[in-house]
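Thread: "does anyone have the structure for this chain?"

Original post by V.I.:
We have the sequence but no experimental structure in hand. Need at least a predicted one for the grant figures.
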Amino acid sequence: MSFPIPLASKMSGASISQLAHWRKTDVLVPEIESAKPPYLYSFRDIVALRTFAWLRGDHSLQLIRKSLDTLRELDMVSHPSSYKLVKLGNSIGVHAEDDRAIDIARNPGQVTIGSLADVFAEFETIRNRRVDSLRHPRRGVEVDPNRLGGWPTIIGTRIPFDLVAELLSDGSVTPEQIGSFYPSVSAEAARDALDYMRSIESHTA
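Reply from O.Q.:
Generated one for you, tokens below.
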């Protein structure tokens, strides 16, 4: 599954301008190969971008870059989403085992105790923008990495949220009528899907 820029931005918490800057400076180039727009991101890209956006709330981009360089020096060259990065006070670590973390920014190689942060939870960016929970961006919308490649769906179903939202968007179908099209979708979940789509559209405006 591939994610267009507006949805990748909304799900990750990285602004559209940050995505462009990070592509140009090789912080994160989408793994779905594309030499020119429209750029498409994988779900793994979104997890990595979300981690960077979360770290960026407390740390400079230079420190994040240094951390990525240290990962490469340690032969940790898999996709950045493969590694669980944690905040270690004014530094950044990579989760090792138990509650240990290896500092990969200010004191590379130093082992310390670090809490494994949940970057999937709701958080606030450095620009004080609220980033929705990744797994549950709305009560009736959920993201399951094992369902449709992580594309947001109506909770408890395989129905993409945007199919439902598009039905409601022009007002010709009401949330109460959605069951005629999708029997497993409640009116409340339909409203949540439309609200989520509108939040994505306003996010890119």
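V.I.: this helps a lot. Helices lie at 5-12, 16-24, 43-56, 61-73, 161-169, 187-204.
O.Q.: and The domain at 135-204 is CATH 1.10.10.10 (Arc Repressor Mutant, subunit A).
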